[in-house]
C-alpha cells in the first residue's frame, strides 16, 4: 500500500507541473501588478518602479520568471524563491510572506471545510439510507424535496438568507448568538473557556451550514441511489434469505458497499468545496484560502496564486489517494500491492 | 411515480425561487433616501456637526475598514493605504490634518502654535513642538523624528538606499531639517530657488529613537532602508497619539486603548477603539445591523444607502470627496486632434442625464463639476465649464459647431473637411464598473446623434491603457486633495505625467508653473483658475462629478462625522464618545 501511495504521489507531480505552467502564464499576462504604482499622483521616481520590477522579477521574460520560481536558479540575492526548495517567492506586497500567509489561511479554511464536509457526509448518509429504505414514503418525499431545494438554491443566496435569519434571531431574543463576520470575536483574550467555545460556535454555525449545503444535497442523492441499487442486488437478497437480521443486512452488507460511490464523490468534490469556500468566506468575511485567491488574482500576485494552486492541487491529490485507500477498507475485494 | 418526483423537484425549485425573490426584496424597492438623516447639520457645519457632550473614558466602538493593509508604515509605498492611515490616525502623529470642510488644521496637541514661514528665499518654516509631547515610552517627540521622516521620503540615495516612499513631493526639495531647543524646535529649509506651496501638509512622524534601538542606524542610507522596513513590518506597540495598539489579529481586527502618555487636551473619550476588517462592502450592512460593527465609511451605492437608512438607530451622511470622475479625450487621435470636433462632442454629452442615471440614483446632490482644480462649496471654486456649454447635452449647438467647422454628414455619417468618415471611436472604461459602463453607453448615444460610430471596450489595466494612450475617449477618476497645485501640474500641464489626453497649452503651462511657485494661496488659486479657463476651452477633459463619500454610524456616538478629505473620518477619533446621559 505504501508503494501504491508513493506511485500516486509521484504521478501527481506532472499534473501539478502542467497546471502551474498554465496558471503562471495566464496570471502573468493578465495585467501589470505595478499599475497602482505607475498611476501614483505625483508620480513615483522611475528608479522606484525599476526596483519593484526587479524585486518581482518583472524585468525578466515569463519563461525566465517561471524557471526561477520553479528551481530558484537565477534568484535575486537574498530571495527565497524556488518551489522545489520549498520557497514560494516574493509577493507583490513586500511585507507579505506567502508561505506564512498560506499556512494561516489554510488553517481557517480547512477547519471550515472539514467540519462542513463531516456534517454533510453524516447527513447525506442518513438521508440517503432512510430515503432508500423507505422508498416512496412520506419521509422519502420529504428528503427528496429538501434535497432538490438545496440543489436549487444558489450558495450565495442561502448564505445571505442564513445570515439574515441569524440576525433576526439575535434581535428577537436580544442575544448575540450568531455572528455574521469573521471566525471569532476581536477581543477574546478576556473570555472564559466557555465563552470562547460559544464564541467560536456562534461564528461557525452559519458559514458551516452554508458550505454544507453544497455537498449535502448532491451526496444524499448519490447515497440514496447507491443504497437502492445495493438493496436490490442479489447478495443482499441472499443475505435476507439466509435469515440474517435486518440490521445486520443493512449495516454490514448493504451500507458498507453503498458507501463506495459516496467515497469517490467526496474525494473528487474536495477541490470544489475549497473553491466553494470562496463564496462562503466572502459572505462571512472569513480570512481563508478563498479570499486569498481572490486577493491574489486581483493583485496580479503571480507567486501567491501559484502557491494557492499548488496547495489546492496537493489537497485534491491527497484526498483522492485517501479515497482509493478507503475502497480497500470498504470493499474486501480490493487490495493494493 | 416519476411525475411525483418531478413535482417535488419543481416545488423545490419554486421554493428556492421564492427565497431568492424575497431576499432580493429585502433591500426595499422604494429607492434610496435623498439625504442624510442625523447628520443634517453637516452641510452647514461640516466641522462641528454631530457634536455634543460625551461620557469620558467609557464605551467602545467598532469601525469597519474595507481594506486589509500589509504595512504599518504609512509613509512608504506599501503602507500608503487609506485603511492604514485610518487605523493609525490616533497612533502616528502629524503636524496637520484636513478637517471635513477641507480646511488645513494644525495639530495643536503636538505643536505649540501654527508654524510660520520665516523666509521665502530660501523657503524656510519652523515647527515648535510642545514640551509635553512624548512617545508612549516617555521619550520626547523631537526634531529627530522630523529628520527621520524627511530622509526616508526624500528619494535621495544619500539618504536612503532602497526606500520606496509613498511620495517624495516636498521632501525632495528640502536642503536641511534642523533641530534646536533640545530638539523641540524644528527648522525646515528648502534648497535655494525651490518653492513648495503645500508645505503645510508635510511630515508624518515615526519614532526615530525606536528605529535606532531596533538596530537600524538610520543616519546611513542602508540603515534608513532597514529602519523603514522595520516600521513596515513591525506592529506598533508605541504611540505618539491618543490611542495605542493593544492587540492586532491579522486580517481580523486592531484593538486600541488609551495611550497613558497621551499629552493632548482631550480624550480619548471612549475606552476602546476597535477596527474590524470587512473587505466585502456588501457585508457591512448585516454586520452593522447585527451590532458587530457600529460605524463604517464605505463607497456608497443605492442599495447600501437604502439599507443603512432602514437600520434603527443608525444615522448616515453622503458627502462629496476629492475624487472627480471625468472623461479624457485622446488629442493625438487623427480626428480628435481637431478642437472643434472635441468641443462639439463635449456639447452633445449630457452630464446632467449621466449623473441622474448613475450617481444621482442615490446622491441627489451630485452635480456637474465645473472646475478641474476646485470643488463646489470651496473658497476658490468657480464653474468654468458650465458657461461654455460643455456637458449641456445641446446636440443642436454641437451640430452648429460642426457645420461651422466644415463637417458634413452630421447626424448620419460624420465626415471631416477632407471627406473622411470620423471614427469609429473606442470608448474605454475599467472592467466591472457598472456606473462607468452605463455612462459610456450614454456617450455612445450622444456620439450617434452626431453621426459618429463608437464601440465600448473595457480595460483591466487602466494604468497601461492611459500611459499608452490606448483610447479615444476614456472615463476614470482623479484622486485629488484640498491641495490642488500639485494635481494641476500633474494632469493639466503639457508635460504632466498625468496628461494622458496629450493636450498642450503653453499659456496655461506658464500660469500653472507660476502658481506652483507662489506661496500666496489666493494668488495661486487665481492663477490656477486662469489656467483652467484656457484648458476648458481646449475641450480635452470633461468633468462629470465629485464622487460621493459615505459614513454610517449608530446615533449614540457623538463627534464622529464624515471627512471627505484624505484625513478621513478618523481624523478626530479621540473625541468620539457616547452621548452624555
Structural topology:
The complex is a heterodimer of chains A (337) and B (581).
Chain A: H1 2-29, H2 35-38, H3 46-55, H4 62-71, E1 81-82, E2 87-88, H5 98-133, H6 138-152, H7 155-173, H8 193-231, H9 234-241, H10 246-284, H11 289-298, H12 302-330
Antiparallel strand pairs in A: 1-2
Chain B: H1 2-25, E1 60-65, H2 82-87, E2 96-98, E3 104-106, E4 116-120, E5 123-128, H3 143-153, E6 174-180, E7 185-190, H4 208-213, H5 221-233, E8 243-249, E9 253-258, E10 272-277, H6 284-289, E11 295-296, H7 302-309, E12 314-329, H8 339-348, H9 351-357, H10 395-404, E13 425-430, H11 434-449, E14 454-459, H12 462-467, E15 473-479, H13 485-491, H14 506-516, H15 521-538, E16 541-554, E17 557-558, E18 577-578
Parallel strand pairs in B: 1-10, 1-11, 13-14, 13-15
Antiparallel strand pairs in B: 2-3, 4-5, 5-7, 6-7, 8-9, 9-10, 11-16, 12-15, 12-16, 17-18
Helix pairs in contact in B: 8-10, 13-14, 14-15
Question: Number of folding domains of chain B?
Answer: 3
How would you sum up the global shape of chain B?
globular
Number of strands of chain B: 18
Assembly state (oligomeric): heterodimer
Please write the CATH class name of the largest domain in chain B: Alpha Beta
Main beta sheet of chain B: 10 strands, mixed
Please write the string of helix (H) and strand (E) elements of chain A. HHHHEEHHHHHHHH
pLDDT averaged residue by residue of chain A:
85
The secondary-structure class of chain A comes to mainly alpha
Greatest chain-chain contact: A-B, 61 and 69 residues
Helical content of chain B (DSSP H or I, runs of 4+): 25-40%
Rg for CA atoms of chain B: 27 Å
Specify the biggest β-sheet of chain A: 2 strands, antiparallel
Q: Tally the helices of chain A.
A: 12
**Strand order in the sheet with the most strands of chain B:** 8-9-10-1-11-16-12-15-13-14
Give the strand content of chain B: 15-25%
Amino acid at each position: 500500500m505504501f508503494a501504491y501511495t508513493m506511485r500516486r504521489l509521484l504521478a501527481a507531480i506532472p499534473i501539478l507541473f502542467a497546471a502551474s505552467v498554465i496558471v503562471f502564464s495566464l496570471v502573468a499576462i493578465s495585467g501589470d501588478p505595478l499599475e497602482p504604482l505607475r498611476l501614483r499622483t505625483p508620480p513615483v521616481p522611475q528608479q522606484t518602479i525599476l526596483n519593484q520590477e526587479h524585486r518581482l522579477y518583472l524585468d525578466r521574460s515569463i519563461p525566465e520568471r517561471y524557471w526561477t520560481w520553479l528551481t530558484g536558479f537565477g534568484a535575486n540575492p537574498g530571495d527565497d524563491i524556488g518551489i522545489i526548495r520549498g520557497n514560494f517567492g516574493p509577493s507583490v506586497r513586500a511585507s507579505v510572506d506567502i508561505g506564512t500567509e498560506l499556512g494561516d489561511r489554510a488553517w481557517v479554511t480547512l477547519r471550515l471545510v472539514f467540519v462542513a464536509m463531516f456534517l454533510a457526509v453524516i447527513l447525506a448518509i442518513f438521508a440517503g439510507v432512510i430515503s432508500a429504505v423507505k422508498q416512496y414514503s412520506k419521509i422519502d418525499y420529504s428528503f427528496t424535496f429538501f434535497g432538490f431545494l438545496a440543489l436549487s438554491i444558489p450558495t450565495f443566496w442561502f448564505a445571505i438568507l442564513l445570515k439574515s435569519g441569524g440576525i433576526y434571531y439575535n434581535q428577537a431574543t436580544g442575544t448575540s448568538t450568531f455572528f455574521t463576520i469573521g471566525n471569532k470575536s476581536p477581543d477574546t483574550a478576556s473570555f472564559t473557556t466557555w465563552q470562547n467555545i460559544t464564541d467560536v460556535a456562534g461564528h461557525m454555525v452559519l458559514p458551516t451550514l452554508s458550505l454544507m449545503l453544497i455537498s449535502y444535497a448532491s451526496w444524499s442523492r448519490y447515497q440514496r441511489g447507491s443504497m437502492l441499487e445495493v438493496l436490490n442486488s442479489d447478495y443482499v437478497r441472499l443475505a435476507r434469505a439466509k435469515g440474517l437480521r435486518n440490521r445486520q443486512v443493512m449495516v454490514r452488507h448493504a451500507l458498507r458497499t453503498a458507501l463506495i460511490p459516496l467515497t469517490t464523490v467526496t474525494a473528487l468534490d474536495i477541490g470544489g468545496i475549497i473553491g466553494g469556500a470562496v463564496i462562503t468566506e466572502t459572505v462571512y468575511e472569513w480570512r481563508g484560502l478563498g479570499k486569498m485567491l481572490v486577493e491574489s488574482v486581483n493583485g496580479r500576485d503571480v507567486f501567491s496564486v501559484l502557491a494557492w494552486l499548488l496547495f489546492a492541487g496537493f489537497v485534491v491529490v491527497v484526498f483522492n489517494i485517501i479515497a482509493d485507500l478507503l475502497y480497500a477498507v470498504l470493499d474486501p475485494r480490493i487490495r493494493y500491492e | 411515480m416519476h411525475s411525483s418526483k418531478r413535482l417535488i423537484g419543481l416545488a423545490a425549485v419554486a421554493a428556492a425561487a421564492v427565497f431568492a425573490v424575497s431576499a432580493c426584496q429585502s433591500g426595499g424597492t422604494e429607492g434610496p433616501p435623498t439625504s442624510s438623516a442625523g447628520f443634517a447639520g453637516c452641510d452647514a457645519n461640516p466641522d462641528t456637526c454631530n457634536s455634543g457632550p460625551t461620557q469620558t473614558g467609557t464605551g467602545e466602538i467598532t469601525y469597519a475598514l474595507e481594506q486589509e493593509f500589509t504595512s504599518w508604515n504609512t509613509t512608504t509605498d506599501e503602507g500608503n493605504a487609506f485603511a492604514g492611515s485610518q487605523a493609525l490616525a490616533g497612533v502616528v502623529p502629524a503636524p496637520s490634518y484636513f478637517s471635513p470642510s477641507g480646511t488645513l488644521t494644525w495639530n495643536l496637541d503636538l505643536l505649540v502654535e501654527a508654524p510660520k514661514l520665516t523666509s521665502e528665499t530660501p523657503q524656510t518654516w519652523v515647527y515648535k513642538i510642545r514640551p509635553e509631547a512624548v512617545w508612549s515610552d516617555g521619550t520626547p517627540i523631537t526634531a529627530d523624528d522630523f529628520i527621520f521622516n524627511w530622509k526616508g521620503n526624500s528619494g535621495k540615495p544619500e539618504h536612503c538606499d532602497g526606500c520606496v516612499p509613498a511620495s517624495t513631493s516636498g521632501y525632495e526639495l528640502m536642503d536641511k531639517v534642523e533641530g534646536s531647543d533640545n530638539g523641540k524646535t524644528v527648522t525646515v529649509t528648502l534648497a535655494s530657488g525651490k518653492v513648495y506651496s503645500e508645505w503645510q501638509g508635510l511630515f508624518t512622524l515615526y519614532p526615530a529613537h525606536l528605529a535606532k534601538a531596533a538596530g537600524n542606524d538610520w543616519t546611513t542610507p542602508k540603515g534608513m532602508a532597514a529602519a523603514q522596513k522595520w516600521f513596515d513590518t513591525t506592529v506598533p506597540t508605541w504611540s505618539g497619539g491618543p490611542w495605542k495598539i493593544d492587540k492586532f489579529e491579522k486580517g481580523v481586527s486592531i484593538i486600541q486603548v488609551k495611550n497613558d502618555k497621551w499629552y493632548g487636551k482631550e480624550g480619548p473619550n471612549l475606552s476602546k477603539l476597535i477596527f474590524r476588517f470587512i473587505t466585502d462592502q456588501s457585508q457591512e450592512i448585516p454586520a452593522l445591523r447585527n451590532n458587530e460593527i457600529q460605524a463604517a465609511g464605505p463607497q456608497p451605492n443605492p442599495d447600501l444607502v437604502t439599507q443603512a437608512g432602514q437600520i434603527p438607530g443608525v444615522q448616515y451622511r453622503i458627502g462629496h470627496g476629492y475624487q472627480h470622475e471625468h472623461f479624457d479625450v485622446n488629442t493625438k487621435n487623427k480626428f480628435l486632434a481637431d478642437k472643434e470636433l472635441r468641443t462639439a462632442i463635449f456639447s452633445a454629452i449630457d452630464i446632467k442625464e449621466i449623473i441622474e442615471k448613475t450617481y444621482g440614483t442615490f446622491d441627489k446632490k451630485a452635480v456637474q463639476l465645473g472646475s478641474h482644480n476646485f470643488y463646489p462649496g470651496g473658497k476658490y471654486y468657480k464653474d468654468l465649464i458650465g458657461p461654455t456649454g460643455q456637458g449641456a447635452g445641446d446636440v443642436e449647438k454641437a451640430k452648429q459647431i460642426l457645420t461651422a467647422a466644415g463637417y458634413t454628414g452630421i447626424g448620419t455619417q460624420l465626415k471631416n473637411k477632407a471627406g473622411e468618415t470620423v471614427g469609429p471611436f473606442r470608448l474605454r472604461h475599467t472592467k466591472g464598473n457598472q456606473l462607468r459602463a452605463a455612462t459610456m453607453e450614454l456617450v455612445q448615444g450622444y456620439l450617434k446623434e452626431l453621426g459618429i460610430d463608437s464601440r465600448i471596450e473595457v480595460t483591466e489595466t487602466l494604468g497601461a491603457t492611459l500611459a499608452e494612450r490606448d483610447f479615444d475617449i476614456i472615463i476614470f477618476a482623479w484622486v485629488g486633495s484640498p491641495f490642488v497645485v500639485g494635481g494641476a501640474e500633474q494632469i493639466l500641464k503639457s508635460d504632466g505625467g498625468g496628461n494622458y489626453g496629450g493636450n498642450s497649452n503653453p499659456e496655461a503651462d506658464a500660469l500653472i508653473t507660476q502658481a506652483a511657485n507662489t506661496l500666496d494661496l489666493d494668488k495661486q488659486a487665481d492663477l490656477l483658475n486662469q489656467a483652467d479657463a484656457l484648458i476648458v476651452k481646449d475641450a480635452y477633459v470633461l468633468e462629470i462629478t465629485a464622487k460621493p463619500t459615505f459614513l454610517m454610524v449608530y446615533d449614540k456616538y457623538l463627534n464622529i462625522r464624515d471627512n471627505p478629505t484624505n484625513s478621513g473620518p478618523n481624523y478626530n477619533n479621540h473625541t468620539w464618545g457616547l452621548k452624555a446621559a
